[in-house]
Amino acid sequence: MNLSRRQKLTSFGFFVLTIFSLTGCSSPVYDEPITGPYRLIAADRIDQLHVCYDLGNGGCLGKIPATTFSVGYGHTYLVAKVNSGSIQNPDIHYYHLDMTVDDMYKNADEITIGPLTEDQYLEAKASLNLPEFSITIDQLIPVPN
Predict the structure, then answer these.
(1) List of residues 6+ apart from 106 with CB closer than 8 A
(2) Ordered per-residue pLDDT tens for the chain, 145 residues
(3) Are 32 and 40 in contact (CB under 8 A)?
(4) What sign does the dihedral 110-128-83-47 (CA atoms) show?
């Protein structure tokens, strides 16, 4: 059987997709409830840790990106501190979302505010009465330069 280049690439793509699907069936390396339907979860590596909205049956809709290393919550808001750099060369940003208007049908870009600089976050914290960070993953805390 002589396959065209396009057929070979399609077959290879399907194979790769199948492998990723199969590896996605294993238990996450980190999974911790935050509050209500919100979870801190990392599928394969701890540096993939992010905030998601639990959809049930193993589904989770991402709300705040990786690498989330600290979160906090109150009655209204959930806050997160994210390092989009590395442990040795951190690039810290802040996020918040209003849990009272969020649901399983809203995408992150519809509900999540961020990335914010530290100054922007402190301004939002003062005006919105954002909660303190209460859960921190020690192994993900950036090393100061």
Answers:
(1) none
(2) 454 444 444 333 333 333 333 345 578 999 999 999 999 999 999 999 999 999 998 899 999 999 999 999 999 999 999 999 998 899 999 999 999 999 999 999 999 999 999 999 999 999 999 999 999 999 898 876 6
(3) yes
(4) negative
